[in-house]
Amino acid sequence: MPQTPMADRPLLKIEDVEIAFSSPDEADIVAVRQVDLALSPGKTLCLVGESGCGKSVTARAVLHLNDQNAVIGRGRILFSPPGEETVDIAALKSDSLALRKIRGNQIAMIFQEPMSSLSPVHTVGDQIDEMITLHEGLKPREARERTVSLLDQVGVPGPHERANSYPFQLSGGLRQRAMIAMALACKPALLIADEPTTALDMTTQAQILDLLKELQEDYGMAMLFITHDLGVVAEIADEVAVMYLGDVVEQGDVFDVFRAPRHPYTQALMRSIPTIARKKERQRLSPIKGTVPSAKDRPEGCSFTSRCPYAFEPCAGTKPDRTPVGNHVARCHLLTEGARKAEVPA
Amino acid sequence: MTALLSVENVSKTFSFRSGWFGPLTTLDALCDVTLSVAPGETLAVVGESGCGKTTLGRSIVRAQPVTAGKVTYRPPGHDPVELTALDKRTMKPWRRDIRMIFQDPMSSLNPHMRVFDIVAEPLRIHRLAKGHELEERVASVLEKVGIPSDAMGRYPHAFSGGQRQRIGIARALVLDPKLVIADEAVSALDVSIQAQVLNLLEDLKDEFGLTYIFISHDLGVVNYIADRVVVMYLGHVVENAPTEALFERPRHPYTEVLLEALPIADPTRRVRRAKTVRGEIPYLGSRPPGCPFHTRCRFAEDRCRAERPALRKVGEAEVACHFAETLELKGAYEQTPATRTFAKA
After folding, report:
1. Reported pTM
2. Which of B244, B264, B277 sits opposite A231 (nearest CB)?
């Protein structure tokens, strides 16, 4: 991993960000209420949560890829590429030159559905060439050489020929590989991966996860990895941030969070996935009661209040603070106020 | 125990023309599939996309005719019925016994029908109840799956994904079926909702004495819910074994590959994969000769490329692999059984 003088400086720091979607005939919907994240160079941070928790919106906000009506209402997104000044991406305009220099070049992104994120009318090779010629100013021939070697590196068999195929001619796994090749074209410092394996078959998912890990070591890039699958988190993450209804409720070292989750939501989430265990060790799943409320009905305080089995007086009204627990942090009143009153039951 | 349902040597070939005058192409979605499910059992059918698991489910309920082979249903207290020999009219009474739950709760419910009508429709079609009794039966089955009966007048869009899946389950159960085929019934749901539906399926099974054929690609769910697992690859059954035996010691190299690919939600069990997974699933139309898995198998030899292995008994399992007896394959369970202590801070 390349060491920069400022290796301890986080590559990406999201501070107290709120993202709201406006609509002409409805009140604004606050999809992301409070997100604080820090990602060190070369590390992998997994954002995990159920649908509608705001994990994708957060990730897309880093590159200003959300729809036009999404507004970053509060907070800063600080990006510090190695050897360069720190920029606040939240303050940049989405079509500004400064952001276009970052997007695809220093921060690249891969998506869930490779079929809908690749252009269907251009060959895979042309699409990757475009990236390289735009950001690095290489000549077409040089760009194509680089493209072919990239495709080779991400494990596309017969990269010369495949560069000339259209996305529909490739299988799901190969398309995802092509998209990864495109994302790597400019050697980004940060790769944002939004559920990159969700649409893939199991064995293909395993291959892509392995590939991403290998490439991360080769390129020394950091990864912001969005997923709903705790199994994938356990496999790939250094750090994990658990989101619920627009809030980060718990985050920190992946081993620590999995060993001793302290937020009731994280605990409940972990108890609702079937473990791979022999029959006699198997326990009945304990699902979380009810469903995720819509962002409009989110309580003023902790967003998990309505489904939390331990909710008490301050939960609905006051937002809990970040509380260090062991090697990580969680936002829950039980950890501060009720420390004596009620140990968070396991 | 005699099987409640047995599938013998079933094949299903789809044929289509590309364009009006194009050549006729055939796809063998199912090849010589044999399996059976005992009364009260939960049989899981797993495999990746294109392995034929959905086609198998649809063939059993006769949503489509099979090309060859037979499906026999043995209702308790009745002579065996060969479902594949029936026509539309004679099949109808048996449709009450064999019901299906679908994957996508959004597209499997008619958006123009109220929930009451969706759940009542099977009763009306089979002329089992009307008027007040109809209402009562619908209300009671909805109550069972956890939908308040005062919500019966609403349309599907007013419900969340998990609730819609419950409505789909209610529709399947309203006829008091014997066998329920759940095709990826929890795959589209969030984990916390998925757990609710899995528990519901288990409770209903105990309460109504149901038998399940549980089609899924998620081995974690399968390990939790199934008594026995059938692994399919490219339209073939490659392994059929009791759940614990299969996860402890798979006998077919493809099963090992699937288990290895399964992400386990415990970072301390993170291991570098041995890279048993190679290549991608071949296109169905160009299925290799011999063993369907030989193109990706790390043990493949000449014999595998030439001769298709038949399903045969090895230990507790039925396996279609030439070397099933000698292979030492890796399972998914922890080597030293220790009680897991997640969530116990």
Report:
1. 0.88
2. B264
